[in-house]
Amino acid sequence: MRRTKAAALSLAATTALTLAVTGCDTVKETAGDIVSTATAAVASAAEEKMNEVKDGVNATGDVKAGPTSTDGDRTVAEITATNPKGKTADYTIMVTFRDGDGNFLDSVVLNIDGVEPGKSKTGTARSNRTLSGEPTAEIAQALRH
Fold first, then answer.
1. What are phi and psi of 130, to 5 degrees?
2. pLDDT digit string (tens) for 99-137?
3. Backbone phi and psi for residue 10, each to the nearest 5 degrees, phi listed first
4. pLDDT digits (tens, 9 = 90+) for 22-74
5. Disulfide engineering: 115 pairs with which of 26, 56, 93, 121, CB 3.0-4.6 Å?
6. 8: Cα within 13 Å, side-chain hemisphere
7. Angle between helices 2-21 and 25-51 (to 10 degrees)
8. How many C-beta neighbours within 10 Å does residue 111 have?
9. What is the spatial distance between Cα 14 and Cα 96, in angstroms, rounded to a whole number?
10. With contact defined as beta carbons under 8 Å apart, do 144 and 53 qualify?
11. pTM, full prediction
């Protein structure tokens, strides 16, 4: 699925760039539709990954996203899970990257495993593609299991 998603994003980005260079309004709208479709596919893939978690409990309050930074050509954010329960838990977390206007840019799923009771553990959420501007990371969903 990762290769399919990467190929779709690559094709969408290449097509959007090629079509945008022509300057035609209709072509620009088509390019925008292609990028929107690819972005929706990424979001859908993240949702599917979250749905694979069995016996997960909503734990959005246990998880915090740190500020974003750049690692190579990708946007990253440190994600911290704090386990308030009495036994070790694993976390599956959907992180959404948004632009300064709050528009959706990307979504990734991160696992932080083996968080001991009363302790915190971190992981790094890494965007699927290059994001422009100054994106922020937010916790869209978190499951403790």
1. -70, 130
2. 999 999 999 999 999 999 999 999 999 999 999 999 999
3. -65, -45
4. 454 544 454 444 445 555 666 678 888 888 888 889 999 999 999 999 999 99
5. 121
6. 18
7. 170
8. 13
9. 23
10. no
11. 0.71
